[in-house]
Batch of 3 targets.
Target 1
Amino acid sequence: MINPFIAIIDQEMQLGAGGEDVGALPGVTLEMLEVNPGPINARVSGLSQFINPGPNQDPASNPGPQQVPAVQLAGFADGSVRTVQGNDQENSRGNNTWTGGTFFSNLSPPDAATNNAWGGTLTLTDQAGNSLNGILIGLLQPSVTNAQRSFLAIIIVAHSVGDWNGISGNGDATINWADQTFNGPFSAKLRITPPVQRKE
């Protein structure tokens, strides 16, 4: 079933066209992906700051990129990481809970004409210095009178260090602000899962 797909990839990527030894190229096996740490769950509370882009710039006099608003978030995090060595659940290092970590993120719309699709970077670090960097992409939920604002996002992990080294995967996040201004308290929930999970 997979051989025709591999043949198409080989043709499209023109593997070997430059004289390289295709068989010697590094790759990733299914087993390597399964060795990575398991699900990461985190709860975050902290403070948010809205950064106003200032007055609209005149495209005729300044054709550069349009300024956009941004929201900076900084908070304390606690959570858990279930780490498994291979597929051997009995030799799992267990459910590592941690408190006192940090969370930083910077969110903004991709351009000045967009007001509900936001994206940006995130950094999550536990108290032992294990950390990951990633991207948040999501939608700001419609405003409701006298209610908190929410941001529903997906997470894509780009880099990780420490005991989390090698983690890859994606997940989801929910960020809730206490009011409509994006200034002041916020709370968030994050979940990251490995790209490959074996069904038992």
Target 2
Amino acid sequence: MSGPVTLTAALTGPIATKADHPALPVTPDEIAVAAAESTAAGAAIVHVHLRDDEGRPTADLDVAHRVIDAIGERCDALVQMSTGVGLGVPLSERAQLVEVRPAMATLNVCSMTFGAGEFLNPADEVRRLAARMAELGVKPELEIYDTGHLDVALELLADGLLVEPLQFSIVLGVRGGMAATPENLLSLVRRMPPTAVWQVVAIGRSNLPITAMGLALGANARTGLEDTLLIRRGEPARSSAQLVARLAAIAGALERPLNSPAQAALALGLATASSPTP
């Protein structure tokens, strides 16, 4: 399969800290600089997690506004806000982040064990969040960590809480979710609606081979310091932009041109690249 590809840069995530990687962006300005660098390297979308002044995951709306504004001042990337935030933040707080009206936001459809913690997404709150995102025109990016998560997402579609084309991230390699294997990837891809847009989110050492597999299958792709801190075994990545550039080179070798942010917005059916903050 061929055709244009949309690359996403996952800049920060909820787990790693500056102690794990000094280049991890945590302040609004650092996140915005990383977004601009990643966009220059080929990303059309930046996946954003927020941190407070102590570097901890936060769902603070003021921080969200500051980050979105700072990114908009430096580049034209589409902002995909994470409503996952961090394992200790309840969904009732995380859900408020869609009120800043990013172009997209994640929708985690199920609770699960996540590493050594618990990622709690109560079913009734997930349904309310899906409905609110539809009201605001925020595109849900459905994060699928296990096979049953796809079934729940399809139930939301059947109940009218989601609108096709669905946008999926198949997350592989999180302890408590699916292992990062070709078999697990293919089993989910075969069950997705034919109109679905999807990408692989492969964690840690599986980031490059499984993401490259997704590109070869015609999918979009994501990488960044949230997903892996290494550019190769034993060598830390300099930045998310370096990881994006590696994926861009693979896409080029597969003769798949990169979508710009504007082209990605059209491909994903977004009304606007990003709504201005009030």
Target 3
Amino acid sequence: MEHLLKGIGVALITPFQKNYKVDYKILENLVEEQISGGTDYIVALGTTGETPTLSDEEQKEIISCICKTVNKRVPVIIGMGGNDPARVIKNIENTNFENIQGILSVTPFYNKPSQNGLIEYYKKISEASPVPVILYNVPGRTGTNMLPETTVKIAKTCSNVIAVKEASGICSQAGKIVKDGPSDFAVISGDDGLTLPIMSIGGAGVISVLANALPKHMSLMVHLANEGNFISARKIHIQLLNFFKILFKEGNPCGIKALMEIMGKASNVLRLPLSPISKELYNDIEKEIKKIL
């Protein structure tokens, strides 16, 4: 059976109006563009979605809007993690999963748990979740690196933990999970720039930030790689190489929101503590997109 998360997922932004309210019409447009652009699944309420600044009510409305727009055409994954397992489990219990195919659960942040603490944490999340769980390792944000041995142990212990979004930036770490993990466990790149390297050693794809703006480019690259056509995929990777670097120069989703404004897809509005990128970087991104489109 084809893995639920093989291919490309988009780490969807949350578009805001000038008054900082969620722009649901633009959100609908973005979802439609992702589906028509070849994106295989939608990931909402993640880091790129500025989720910590969204109220509980806004989060529910965003999920409802996305699920209604998707209308079961592709899987919908929602971010559901935190540093208090009791609170995460309560959130899971209060969520309607009727049109949601999985949750993306980040490692606890700020607490800086041990590797054993991570294993026990994910056992609790796995037991509580009625849908498949995707682990999310992003030490640059959480302060803790989930080691490959830990990921593998969780994957072998918890039957509904089906994948990891690996954003440590360490290809050898992703490779070890591919090598030692269950054969049906997916290793997904959490870094646009490492998508192709990770796929070349057995990764399943990427949960992409750049796909918000360039879904056709990113989906074509990933689909070519999954077909084993790395020569053609590499051409797209090289074409996008500068974007992989400059888009995150002043933080995420600051860069992608600037690019979305330049392309006329969404406003460059962020909620504090995030703020718009510098004019210099904005100009650099504007010059770079003209080379591609």
